[in-house]
Automatic annotation (TrEMBL):
Belongs to the metallophosphoesterase superfamily. Purple acid phosphatase family. One of its GO terms (molecular function) is metal ion binding. Residues 35-101 form the Purple acid phosphatase N-terminal domain. Keywords: Glycoprotein, Hydrolase, Signal. It comes from Sordaria macrospora (strain ATCC MYA-333 / DSM 997 / K(L3346) / K-hell). It catalyses: a phosphate monoester + H2O = an alcohol + phosphate. This is Purple acid phosphatase.
Amino acid sequence: MEGKKRSSQGEDDGQLNPMLSTRQHITALPGLILSSSSVYWGLSKDRLHNVAMSNISVTYSTSTTYNNHVLISGLWPDTTYFYHPSPLMKSTSTDIFNFTTSRRAGDNTPFSAAVVIDLGTMGSLGLTTSAGAPVTSTNILRPGEKNTIDSLESSLADFDFLWHAGNIAYADYWLKEEIQGFLPNTTIQGGAAVYESILNEFYDEMMAITASKSYMVGPGNHEANCDNAGTTDKAHNITYDSSICMQGQTNFTGFKNHFRMPSDVSSGTGNFWYSFDHGMVHFIELDTETDLGHGFIGPDQTGVFKGFTDVDPVNATMNAQITWLEADLAAVDRSKTPWVVVAGYRAVTNRYNNTDDTCPTCKDVFEPLLIKYNVDLVLSGHSHVYGRLAPLAEGKEDSNGLENPTSPWYITNGAAGHYDGLDPLQSPRQPYSRFGLDTTNATYSWNRLIFYNCTHLTHDFVASNNNTVLDSATLFKARTCSERSEHH
Ligand SMILES: *[C@@H]1O[C@H](CO)[C@@H](O)[C@H](O)[C@H]1NC(C)=O
Ligand SMILES: *[C@@H]1O[C@H](CO)[C@@H](O)[C@H](O)[C@H]1NC(C)=O
Ligand SMILES: *[C@@H]1O[C@H](CO)[C@@H](O)[C@H](O)[C@H]1NC(C)=O
Ligand SMILES: *[C@@H]1O[C@H](CO)[C@@H](O)[C@H](O)[C@H]1NC(C)=O
Ligand SMILES: *[C@@H]1O[C@H](CO)[C@@H](O)[C@H](O)[C@H]1NC(C)=O
Ligand SMILES: *[C@@H]1O[C@H](CO)[C@@H](O)[C@H](O)[C@H]1NC(C)=O
Ligand SMILES: *[C@@H]1O[C@H](CO)[C@@H](O)[C@H](O)[C@H]1NC(C)=O
Ligand SMILES: *[C@@H]1O[C@H](CO)[C@@H](O)[C@H](O)[C@H]1NC(C)=O
Ligand SMILES: *[C@@H]1O[C@H](CO)[C@@H](O)[C@H](O)[C@H]1NC(C)=O
Ligand SMILES: *[C@@H]1O[C@H](CO)[C@@H](O)[C@H](O)[C@H]1NC(C)=O
């Protein structure tokens, strides 16, 4: 097992703790193969008297690290725990991290959550103040401009957890960044090392948040792209395709290795579809990339975009995701979790007249269920723009608008930031579009969801450079809230 190196900074002990009130997964000590991984934990920094262990240490052939997964169970809801991931109980205070478990379902305490989609690596391997030749100047950061990771770090007090619903790190941009003269050129064979270094750099950068917040993830196309979406090297007249794929990029391999979402306890599948409760909200992550069911082929599956991504379904059971979604929605106890919020990487409904960016088959399979079960809010990304729509069903806007609609409300924010910057909105915008920002006027940003009570939910678009809210809208649902129930 020698020859495997720790990830870039050698400092990344412990992160990424998908939450559930009674359990917490820790990805500990990337970089070391451990026959037994241990996490020391407790209710205060100086009393890490409990130890959780596992022998789950996973990697793949082109990886430079191991992912050691440890599950801690028997935790209280809404409680801050401290932990130290180490094979040995030796620590300095800088090695001690913390997380706060989710609020019990039915706890009506107001809270906020942060959401990002399409967030890439920042700095010298990704989005920074310079870029490769074809990237326009509006897409780079201004000197001193705070990026989205900086903004989230400076806002830790403002959200309970971070939900990153697809396109994590953009490590597959390595080849594009080389062809555009941003990174030094390597060979295709040497690309795996560059790919892995970008992934590890991203995980290190995210420690600013994951050292104390739960980080929930879902699949986007760049977790499976192998060729930077059909990159052409004009100098050598080569258009790359999936023949250059390396193992970390195929079949979501890196994504499957690094994360552990709570699909086992929500009957979902891997990091692809799952649900969890937090206070008065039931959150659902969907997979818009594969496994759409009803005979539809997901946009990342083999044969759809030739040469882009050639992914097999992640669950062999026929219609597994759609069957799960209906069962999950039908089981929601709205007296405990009146709000149901769904995120899936690609937009389920047309945001703009941009057929490239939407997923018509996602609409066909998911929208009927989102309508039938009165889902309140649906979030997506993929298009690197911000677009807030009216609540709508089957392309028709709800006549109630945000005042007690019966249709789901749709918001796309793919403007968290990555090497390639932002996209233009297509014109004309759909009549049900309420607010839009694109490359001409957008800023890198994240979403803040504020759940006040069972009737009021506010969505804020937060500009990363100055933490200013550039768009805010509140959804009202006429329903009777159950008695306010405080946690323990
Ligand atoms: C890992 O631990 C489980 C029990 O927790 C055991 O069944 C399994 O054999 C172990 N695997 C290895 C490779 O040691
Ligand atoms: C890398 O190769 C591309 C063409 O394939 C070229 O345009 C670029 O300048 C090269 N970059 C470096 C740093 O050599
Ligand atoms: C949790 O960790 C963060 C990051 O290190 C730190 O800022 C925060 O104070 C810690 N929380 C508590 C309650 O100690
Ligand atoms: C580029 O390659 C294609 C075949 O892949 C060839 O048809 C074309 O003529 C080449 N173009 C140039 C400018 O060499
Ligand atoms: C993806 O995984 C499937 C097994 O699920 C395998 O048959 C296929 O070869 C894999 N594709 C690639 C490109 O590795
Ligand atoms: C596939 O979905 C079924 C339920 O439809 C579930 O029982 C099974 O665990 C899933 N498979 C994986 C690999 O998660
Ligand atoms: C969408 O764009 C197409 C052309 O690309 C145009 O024919 C059509 O009218 C547009 N639809 C709307 C609703 O703007
Ligand atoms: C931003 O620019 C786009 C056109 O590119 C326009 O559709 C949109 O309304 C503008 N947004 C604001 C808030 O001005
Ligand atoms: C719910 O929160 C909103 C926003 O703070 C407030 O205006 C409203 O009065 C609250 N409703 C109840 C029933 O507490
Ligand atoms: C914050 O940044 C945005 C986007 O660059 C800008 O439109 C806005 O005016 C700024 N607000 C303040 C208060 O500086």
